[in-house]
Amino acid sequence: VLPFFSELAEEFVHVDVSELRAQANDNGNQPPTKMRALSTGEDAETVRKALLLVSKMTLRQELEIRELQSAVFKTFVVREPNPIISTVRAEVGSYLEKAKMARSSGGSLPEGEVHAYAWAALTQVAVQQETLDGTSKAVIDSHRAAMASPDMIADVVYIAKLKKAFNKGEFKLFLAVSPAHHGLLEAVSAGVLATGAVEKKGQAPASGMSRELQALVDKLTEIASK
Question: Which of 113-137 are b and which e, b meaning 16 or more Cβ less than 10 Å from the residue's Cβ?
Answer without folding.
Answer: bbbbbbbbbbbbbbbebeebeeebb
